[in-house]
Amino acid sequence: MQSPAKISVIMPVYNCGTTLADEIGWLQESLPEIVGRNFEVVVVDDGSQDDTTEVLNDLQARYQNLRVARHSRPRGVEAAGQTGLEKSSGDLVFIKEGQDRLSLHDLRQLLDLSDDPSVVAARAQSSPDVLAGPLLRRLRAWGAASRTGERSSQSLGRGLQMLRRRHLQALASPAGRQLRLQSGRIVTCTATA
After folding, report:
1. Which residues constitute the domain of residue 60?
2. Residues 73-92: pLDDT tens digits?
3. What order do you get walking across the sheet with 66-71 strand by strand?
4. Strands 66-71 and 7-13
5. Structural element, H or E, at residue 153
6. Which residues lie below 8 Å from residue 158, measured CB to CB, with a gap of 6+?
7. Which of 10, 118, 125, 131 is 20 to 30 Å apart from 157, CA to CA?
């Protein structure tokens, strides 16, 4: 029997020192029920100017599976997500969008999709907001631009992205230039929470 894939949850944050301890504590309690104990939480502080740094230092001392990356100045949520992707080690990587609490419903939906090994990336969104292109931009950043097709970007509400590391590494490799993604296989789950 193969051991379960390691899970990484990436949280880009900015100036949320007052709510961060509660969010991380909640994740540390909730995630084992869904993904088991083989997970890490990677918080990317996008140049916060409040007490986020001090809160993260305290939380790191409390939780062994909490990793922290920092930007010296704000670079935006997509740059923070990319930094988290680079610093994470999970086979399945989930990137939280927005400042709302991570939706466990979205996480479960994406985990169900991960059972299909052909799914490279997916996105779940609990609110009925307009869907947009951050997932496609992330794929492009990994070297898959010519294979994902061009789509216009619109503003996004909160959501959760799932990326399968080994597929993205293959797409980003020199041999990946010969691969093509079928846009019809890019899956987005939308549900009302």
Report:
1. 7-176+186-190
2. 999 988 999 999 899 999 99
3. 66-71, 39-46, 7-13, 92-97, 159-164, 121-125, 187-190
4. unpaired
5. none
6. 97, 98, 99, 100, 103, 125, 126, 127, 129
7. 118
